Amino acid sequence: xxxxxxAVSAPGKVILHGEHAVxxxxxxxxxxxxxxxxxxxxxxxxxxxxxxxxGVGVRRSWDTPCLRALRGRIAGKGRGxxxxxxxxxxxxxxxxxxIAAGASAPDSxxxxxxxxxxxxxxxxxxxxxxxxxxxxxxxxxxAGLGSSAAYAVxxxxxxxxxxxxxxxxxxxxxxxxxxxxxxxxxINSWAFQGERVIHGNPSGVDNAVGTWGGALRYxxxxxxxxxxxxxxxxLLTNTKxxxxxxxxxxxxKEKILKFPAIMNPVLDSIDAISQECQSVLEAMxxxxxxxxYPVLEEFFDINQHHLNVLGVGHPSLDRLCQVTASHSLxxxxxGAGGGGxxxxxxPPDTSPLAVEAAKQDLCACGFECWETKIGAPGVTLxxxxxxxxxxxxxxxxS
Length: 398
Known about the structure:
The structure is a single chain. The chain contains twelve helices and 13 strands. It has helices spanning 64-74, 87-97, 106-125, 147-162, 181-199, 205-212, 245-258, 260-283, 293-310, 315-325, 352-364, 389-397; strands at 6-17, 28-43, 48-53, 58-63, 131-137, 176-177, 215-219, 222-225, 232-238, 331-334, 341-345, 368-374, 380-383. The strands form two sheets. Strands 1, 2, 3, 4, 5, 6, 7, 8 and 13 form a nine-stranded mixed β-sheet that branches. A hairpin with a 4-residue loop joins strand 3 and strand 4 (58-63). It is globular, with a radius of gyration of 21 Å.
């Protein structure tokens, strides 16, 4: 029996440096984005488990005895490693949920991930009680900002908590709380399984950022949290230009094979930027002053030129950089490139008028803009009364 009304949130992510080079063994820096996914958890009707994701059009409810009967078909044995999602397990879940084979729309994948995580976690730690789960996100889907990982992290934390595998650390009168390092490790491992359901073979970076927040260094499969990360203000801009990460990655590989003597030094330079940036960030105070920003701005400018040389730029991203440069701000693409999103540093002495003018000019290009922060905290437990008016309104409307 679950008797509390609480919320869980997890941040999205952006790649600060190292896009594309990371595929070839170089260092990438991923940072938590203070646009978050929120999951509200509250007691539900006895014998029912429901999940609502209005952002992708999911409203589903199941009888808990039916889920218990299905659980034996997908559960792993013992209490060792988290079971890997297998094809026959996911096929059984698709059949149960009425999801067509090969369906890859966000609503289908979100439902599949929910069912898999719910049943696999309950098989290992005990039944999921009758609860209502409602998920709302500030993150756009399909923009390379880690929206699926933020969802998986929120789900893992909520399901592990109601099953008793981790604590409910929020004390009476507190607005937020976080789990222990051991509990965060468990949340991350299950969120990774959810990401496997959605993406097949993810790197694990997105769910790690969603779990721990701050910034992470990723190289050749090894994920290392940065020792200390300042919170930096940014503009995040979505050009709304669709792109295929697979096609862009293949294009970079083709160019490297064609011109190795030219392209390999570019990759080495991107690697050096990531490592230099890590050193700068770890030496910066928690609330940096304006004099800390020029070197970060130079890194942005140099890396953006390198990414254009790799062939992953786009006229929309060039326009983004030109517009922000006209306001003395520095930008670069983040993620796969070829459209998608870009990030712009906002030093502390940037006037609100300059930020607003830049946002208006970017929106006039047909882009979507958010003023936010990087270096945000990871998965967090909230009292529902402490959530912002915007989040409470969105959850109420859902």
